[in-house]
Recover the amino acids of this structure.
């Protein structure tokens, strides 16, 4: 075991798979000698050569488009979109092509593409179009998988599994989590199953469902709620498409209350999808409506207002108190 930040764990996962499979290719804007904006690919070009780890032009449409061609020829592309707010340029290739090719080809063509990209706010203070939570745009497209780790251990295991998956995966990395803490991470090869949530804190009074950086806000809220004798269970979705409803429903059947938490705007993200499904499947177990913690339905705020605009653990506590006293 080694103590790693999330960015180190991601680099290690890429290294593992570049060693494991000669068909794995890593590429994107400045990912070569520069090692990427956040140094996620630092040292990989020196280790594996310019044919395996290389820079591309500043063209997200080209990055995504070439990934489709490479995948049809037996490669396992791992392209990087430098910031996920730039994904609009690649939406036709992702949602219009990658997601459909297995069906369109009668299951004769796989799309083992893993698109990595940073996103998210909360003290990051990026320019416009850098921090937006756009996971909902991809999650709404059948055929795509969307993975969002909340820490180093999960990041490595989920990324290795994503690269080995034969379907296209969008792997989103919250910028706030890159270097904010360390965890023990195995230095060898391991995977974490996609589509399987993780109960990171057990409780009996209310279920908090979150993903990415909001998992840590949920855990902080749970600690404060414990002082008021409210025992919150916290579930980290890890994969936001497909969603592990089995784990959520099992928790709700125990706690009878739920709060859904996301950094994205209420109309965006996946909160509405999760809430509607849980209420359909477990309405008779609920003693209060499921409430949602999310950002306001406006464009992402400029940095001066970012901390006011983004949801935080106090918002979670407020919603928990409402469901507890409904």
């Amino acid at each position: 075991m080694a103590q790693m930040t999330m960015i180190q764990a991601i680099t290690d996962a890429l290294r593992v798979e570049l060693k494991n499979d000669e068909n794995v290719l890593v590429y994107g804007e400045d990912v070569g000698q520069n090692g990427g904006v956040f140094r996620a690919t630092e040292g990989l070009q020196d280790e594996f050569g310019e044919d395996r780890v290389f820079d591309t032009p500043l063209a997200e449409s080209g990055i995504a488009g070439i990934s489709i061609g490479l995948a049809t020829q037996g490669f396992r592309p791992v392209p990087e979109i430098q910031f996920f707010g730039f994904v609009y340029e690649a939406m036709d290739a992702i949602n219009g092509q990658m997601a459909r090719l297995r069906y369109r080809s009668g299951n004769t063509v796989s799309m083992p593409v893993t698109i990595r990209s940073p996103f998210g706010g909360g003290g990051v203070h990026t320019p416009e179009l850098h921090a937006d939570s756009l996971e909902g745009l991809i999650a709404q497209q059948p055929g795509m998988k969307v993975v969002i780790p909340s820490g180093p251990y999960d990041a490595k295991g989920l990324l290795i599994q994503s690269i080995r998956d034969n379907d296209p995966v969008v792997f989103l990395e919250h910028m706030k989590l890159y270097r904010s803490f360390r965890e023990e991470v195995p230095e060898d090869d391991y995977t974490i199953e996609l589509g399987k949530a993780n109960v990171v804190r057990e409780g009996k009074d209310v279920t908090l469902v979150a993903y990415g950086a909001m998992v840590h806000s949920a855990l902080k809220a749970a600690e404060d709620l414990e002082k008021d004798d409210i025992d919150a269970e916290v579930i980290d979705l890890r994969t936001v498409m497909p969603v592990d409803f089995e784990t959520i429903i099992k928790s709700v059947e125990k706690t009878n209350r739920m709060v859904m938490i996301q950094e994205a705007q209420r109309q965006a993200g996946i909160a509405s999808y999760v809430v509607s499904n849980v209420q359909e499947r477990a309405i008779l177990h609920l003693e209060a409506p499921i409430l949602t913690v999310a950002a306001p339905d406006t464009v992402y705020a400029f940095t001066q207002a970012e901390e006011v605009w983004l949801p935080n653990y106090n918002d979670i506590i407020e919603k928990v108190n409402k469901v507890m006293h409904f």
Observations:
- The chain has two domains: 2-185, 198-325.
- Residues 154 and 237 are 11 Å apart (CA to CA).
- The chain has a mean pLDDT of 96.
- The radius of gyration is 19 Å.
